[in-house]
Amino acid sequence: MDRHYAYKICSPSRSALQTGRLAVHVNTLNTGVTAQNRSDPVSGYAGIPRNVTGIAQKLRSAGYRTHMVGKWDAGMATPEQTPLGRGYETWVGYFQHANDYWRKGMNLQSTGEIDNCLNEFTDLFMHNATYRGGVR
């Protein structure tokens, strides 16, 4: 990859990586899995629109084996939006972006509808010896 642009939140970046398209053309939101727009049956769900082809589908059609391990966070509202529906033969991981690895439950706040960290981070770039304020 020589031109992959990461988004500031995980779901759009993962959707872009899985489809080969810029996040703005695939998924610009980091909504929880409960978010949906019932009037749009194709792209009205969180994650990659259902009519978009992904990398695993392309690799499988070329004869490659496809397996995935890790966080998906690119849609799961319908079976065809899950990793197995997107062309992966096997998958072990989590569907969404808020996972508690030590307890079985997470509250709804942690699924992306509310960002508890918004405006709570400190920009430490100015303390880095190589920081030039955006000038190269």
Automatic annotation (TrEMBL):
Q: Which Gene3D superfamilies match?
A: Alkaline Phosphatase, subunit A (3.40.720.10)
GO MF annotation list: metal ion binding; sulfuric ester hydrolase activity
Q: Name one Pfam family in it.
A: Sulfatase
Q: Where's the Sulfatase N-terminal domain?
A: 4-107
Q: What keywords were assigned to this record? A: Calcium, Glycoprotein, Metal-binding
This one is known as Sulfatase N-terminal domain-containing protein
Give the organism the record lists.
Eutreptiella gymnastica
